[in-house]
Specification:
Blueprint: E1 2-7, E2 13-19, E3 23-30, H1 33-36, H2 44-66, E4 75-81, H3 85-102, E5 106-110, H4 111-117, E6 130-135, E7 140-147, E8 150-156, H5 162-172, H6 179-187, H7 211-224, H8 233-262, E9 266-270, H9 277-290, E10 293-295, H10 306-318
Helix pairs in contact: 2-3, 4-10, 5-6, 5-7, 5-8, 6-8, 8-9
Length: 335
């Protein structure tokens, strides 16, 4: 069974062909980072315009790389939320037209569910049930994954997601966008104990809150450099390392609490921030010390991609789920 998966939820235009819900025949991702870098973050209107330009070439390339004709696909899976409303509209409007022309069924997919499946589409996936930490630019959430399509939300971000905090802190230091990879790289050369930043554990809750941490970094920068333009390289590396240490400490502690509260020994880390080198190293070490299993997707499946959408679509297809042509996109869509 061949499923075309499409994701335009944010600033990446992506399309993939996946066979039988697991065999990735193609996975094309067109990034817009170069466009949004000069603004220090994603400009929604520019993102949707570029999606309009990219969607057809990206789908054509996905079909070509997979070596199939569009009429050979069995269904089309598309992310319909959560995400930027303009970006979602481009992908979903395209899918409605394409599916109608081809006479193929449509499968609507929650973006968060897609991230969970980035660890179910690889060899040796976690067995059900397991804990999933989704940590990205738009989301920081914990879920109990009971089975295919069965989820229980354990905690979510009350304000800034972890990836969003990375981007904002990067902008404060004048490092550019996207902030995650830049700070991660600088942090490897810095001292994580150079600055005392708070650990927003929110004791007794599995929710997340990183806005206070971001403010603490902002106030520290003001003390070091009142005009904000004279940070030395050493100061930037130490700020990066100290900020990142706080974020990773919180993420790992929340994972520990979630595993303990649910009595489970398996956790899957998903989303763009799961590519973070420090998080990957420390969660593996922590899992070894505390005797639980940790699953990390390959780097190419950490960020938004069509393959994870296709994988979810396959499960919906075999369950008999279908979407009508009048389905709507949703900027906010709980899992």
């Amino acid at each position: 069974m061949l499923i075309l998966g499409i994701d335009t939820s944010c600033d990446d235009t992506s399309a993939a062909i996946v066979k039988d819900g697991k065999i990735i025949l193609s996975n094309i991702v067109s990034s817009q980072s170069e466009i949004h870098t000069k603004y220090g973050g994603i400009v929604p209107e520019l993102a949707s315009r570029r999606h309009s330009e990219n969607i057809i070439p990206v789908v054509d390339l996905a079909l070509s790389k997979a070596g199939i004709d569009s009429h050979e696909i069995d269904a089309i899976a598309v992310c319909h939320g959560p995400g930027l409303i303009g970006s979602l509209l481009v992908g979903c409007c395209f899918v409605k037209s394409f599916a109608y022309i081809l006479g193929k069924p449509i499968l609507t997919v929650n973006h968060l569910e897609g991230h969970i499946y980035s660890n179910l589409i690889v060899d040796n996936p976690p067995q059900f049930p397991f804990i999933s930490l989704i940590v990205s630019g738009g989301h920081t959430s914990l879920y109990l994954v009971k089975n295919h399509g069965e989820y229980k939300e354990l905690g979510k971000s009350r304000d800034d997601a972890a990836g969003e905090a990375y981007d904002k802190v990067s902008k404060l230091m004048g490092l550019g966008y996207p902030g995650g990879p830049i700070i991660d790289k600088l942090a490897q050369k810095g001292n994580p104990n150079a600055f005392e930043f708070p650990r927003p554990y929110l004791s007794g809750s599995l929710d997340f809150s990183f806005s206070g941490l971001k403010t603490s970094v902002k106030n520290t920068i003001k003390k070091i450099s009142p005009k904000g333009d004279s940070l030395s390289l050493i100061q930037k590396t130490d700020l990066s390392a100290s900020f990142q240490a706080s974020v990773v400490d919180v993420l790992i502690q929340k994972v520990h609490w979630a595993l303990k509260s649910e009595g489970i020994q398996r956790v899957s880390i998903n989303g763009g921030v799961s590519a973070n080198a420090e998080l990957r190293k420390r969660i593996v070490d922590y899992a070894r010390e505390n005797k639980f299993e940790v699953y990390l997707p390959p780097l190419y499946l950490c960020t938004d991609n069509g393959a994870m959408i296709s994988a979810v679509g396959y499960q919906k297809y075999i369950r008999g789920e279908r979407a009508n042509l009048d389905f709507n996109v949703k900027a906010y869509l709980p899992l």
